[in-house]
Amino acid sequence: MEQAFFLLFASIAVASACGVVLLKNPVHSAVSLMGCFIQIAALYILLHSPFLAAVQLFVYVGAIMVLFIFVIMMLEIRQATLERFLPGSKYIALVFSVVLGSAMLWLLFSSPLLSQIPPPTPSASQGSVSELGQALFTQYLLPFEVVSIVLLVALVGAIFMTHKGDG
Fold first, then answer.
1. pLDDT score at 85
2. How many angstroms separate the CA atoms of 132 and 144, rounded?
3. What angle do CA 146, 12, 68 make, to 5 degrees?
4. CB contact at 8 A, 54 and 31
5. According to the 3-state scheme, what is the secondary structure of the chain?
6. Using one digit for the tens of pLDDT, what is the confidence trace for 27-39?
7. How far apart are CA 116 and CA 16, in angstroms?
8. Fewer CB within 10 A of the terminal residue: the chain, N end or C end?
9. Do 77 and 26 form a contact (C-beta atoms < 8 A)?
10. Of the candidates 73, 59, 67, 92, which has an alpha carbon nearest to the alpha carbon of residue 25?
11. Rounded Cα distance, 92 and 89, in Å
12. Would you state the pLDDT for residue 40?
């Protein structure tokens, strides 16, 4: 039953992620991204980590999506979406997408590791806040700091993009 829910949530997440890329209206794309974030929170619940699911909902769906919608409304995205980046690039992108997608599916289904995955055995402390904090600040400290620097650069870039030339 848990595998059926995983397949359901994962397929909805992939479909909404495709909607993020394929929808022309930026607001519809942001709403599709919000749907993808909600499905990822559901996957965290299936992994017996309710704290990460709650953080996913509060931080990404609540705060980040409000920020995305604010930036979309603030910038003049409609004009940028009307311009073509490269003429005729849609067909080249479609060919590459089909080739890469079929290669990924072939690798996924031909892998001998797929049948050797043991079912997860949940422990009593799995997904606890203290265990998550311990892992985050010991084993994953470098990636945590790199993400914080990337977010800082994105914040400075957003401020730079919205700043009107006053002088």
1. 57
2. 12
3. 45
4. no
5. CHHHHHHHHHHHHHHHHHHHHHCCCHHHHHHHHHHHHHHHHHHHHHCCCHHHHHHHHHHHHHHHHHHHHHHHHHCCHHHHHHCCCCCCHHHHHHHHHHHHHHHHHHHHHHCCCCCCCCCCCCCCCCCCHHHHHHHHHCCCHHHHHHHHHHHHHHHHHHHHHHCCCCC
6. 788 889 899 999 9
7. 29
8. C
9. yes
10. 73
11. 5
12. 93
For 156, the token pair is 């400075």
Condensed to tens digits (0 to 9), the pLDDT of residues 112-163 reads 766 666 666 655 556 678 888 888 888 888 888 988 898 888 888 877 777 7
Q: Is 114 exposed, middle or buried (0-12, 13-18, 19+ CB in 10 A)?
A: exposed
121 token code pair = 């055995």
pTM (two decimals): 0.59
Which residue, among 114, 100, 84, 119, has the nearest Cα to 3 in the 3D structure? 119
